[in-house]
Every structure is written in C-alpha cells, then in structure tokens.
Design brief:
- With 148 residues, the protein is an alpha/beta fold.
- The chain has a domain at 15-64 and 98-140: Ribosomal protein L13 (Ribosomal Protein L13p, Chain: A).
- The chain has helices spanning 26-38, 69-72, 90-96, 98-107, 114-120, and strands at residues 16-20, 54-58, 74-78, 85-89, 123-125, 139-140.
- Strands 5-2-1-6 form a four-stranded parallel sheet, covered by helices on one side. Strands 3-4 form a two-stranded antiparallel sheet.
- The protein is globular and about 55 Å long.
C-alpha cells in the first residue's frame, strides 16, 4: 500500500517573488499571484498545507482591465449598521485603494478557510514602485505572455 507524501516543515522552501503590475490585466495577474501563494508551481504541493511563496506586487495603481469594467464592476462593503451599505465602482477603488482591488481579486481565488487567511498574509501589495522588502532579496517574476 502506498502512502501519500506530506512535506515536512523543513522541506518547504519559501521564496520571495516581485511582480510588477504595470500594464497587467487584473484577472490574469490575480491567477498568477494565487498560484504562487498556494505553491501550485512546486512539486511538493499539498492541497491542505501552505507550501507557497511570498509575493510582492508593485505599481498596483497601473493595472488594466478589459471591457467596461471600470464603470460597471461594483465593490460592496457594509459597516454593520442599518443603512451602512456602500457601493464603489472599480474606477473609484483604483483611485482610492488600488491595493485592495488586487487583494480582493486574489482572495476570490484562494480557499475561504484558515489556510486562505494564512496565504493572504503572504501577499504584500504597494501602490508605487517602492517596497520595504529589499532584505528578503525578492526575485523578479516574469509573467508568461507579457510583452517586456
């Protein structure tokens, strides 16, 4: 009888990836980020464990969307009080909080449980080109199909 392989904590090697969101399409960028956070690109991937890497996203304010999503896509939030529902379009969200647009898209692609909450903490998103993670020596991640 064969046993299922489960990687030990000492066997999981975490890397830091740097992704430049300048000119990237939101959904395609989010799928790439979610795949790296889960660790699906590694041979030791295990669905119930965190085997993924850390991801740093810079230039979040320069993402692109296709079609008429800028005016038609709506983000809802509720304060918990009666009449506390707020609705903002994607255009408004990109102007105020472009980091949250990417975080929201990635959150939709990872598990909604303890593992997902652990994974989303490994995602660092910054509005401009600067980030405070130089000590981790992040490697630039080139997205397939991108024209550089």
């Amino acid at each position: 009888m064969e046993k299922t392989y489960t990687p030990k904590a000492s066997e999981i090697h975490r890397r830091w990836w740097l992704i430049d969101a300048d000119g990237q399409i939101l959904g395609r960028l989010a799928t790439t980020i979610a795949r790296l956070l889960r660790g699906k690109d590694k041979p030791e991937f295990t669905p119930f464990m965190d085997t993924g890497d850390f991801v740093i996203v810079i230039n979040a304010e320069k993402i692109k969307v296709t079609g008429r999503k800028l005016d038609e896509k709506i983000y809802f939030s509720h304060s918990g009080y009666p009449g506390g529902l707020k609705a903002r379009t994607l255009r408004e969200m990109l102007a105020k909080k472009p980091e949250e647009v990417i975080r929201h898209a990635v959150w939709g692609m990872i598990p909604k449980n303890r593992l997902g909450r652990k994974l989303i903490k490994k995602l660092k998103i910054y509005r401009g080109p600067n980030h405070p993670h130089e000590a981790q020596q992040p490697q630039p991640y080139l997205i397939v199909g991108r024209k550089n």
